[in-house]
Amino acid sequence: MMTFTIITVGFVGLATLFPVASGSLMSSTYQSHAASLAEPDRELVSTQLLINKSPAGSLSGSVRWGRSKGEKPMARQQLFLKGFEGSSLGQIYEVHTDSAGHYRFIGITPGTYALTNRIDGPPIWRLKVVVEAEKVKEMNLSPQNSVNARDDYPRA
Fold this sequence. Notes:
Elements: E1 2-9, E2 15-20, H1 28-37, E3 44-51, E4 57-62, E5 64-65, E6 72-73, E7 78-85, E8 92-96, E9 102-108, E10 111-116, E11 126-131, E12 136-138
Parallel strand pairs: 4-12
Antiparallel strand pairs: 1-2, 1-3, 4-9, 5-6, 7-8, 7-10, 10-11
C-alpha cells in the first residue's frame, strides 16, 4: 500500500502529489513546501490518497518447434497468459515472439495462469504458470511440453 498526500491551493488552484510513509502524518518539510505554494487569500487543503498496487512479476522464455530436422525458433508466435485463480482470475495478457523466438510478459499481476498460444480452438501449449511478485519466471516452449506431452488444463 502506498500513501500519497495531495495538496491543493485554493478552490481550483495548484495541485501537487507528495509521497508519504504509509500510516504517517504529512512531514513538516512537505507542509512548509505546500504552505509556500499558497497565496495569502487562498486556503491550503490536503487529502491523503491510498493506492494499492501489488508489485508485478514477469514471464519470459523462448518458443522452438520442429521434429525431423531439429527445433527452430518460432518468430511472431502469438502467446497468451489467461488468469484462472485468485487475483489473476479473468485477466488475459498477450505477446508475440521476436524474430529469434523469444517472448516476455512484463507487469503481470501475481497469480496462477495458463500459458497458451490459443484462446479458442486446439492449442499447441496449455501450461500452468505461477507468476510471483518481483520475480521473472522462465518458461521455454517446445514439443517436449506441448499438449501432446503435457496439458495442465485438459478439457472434458
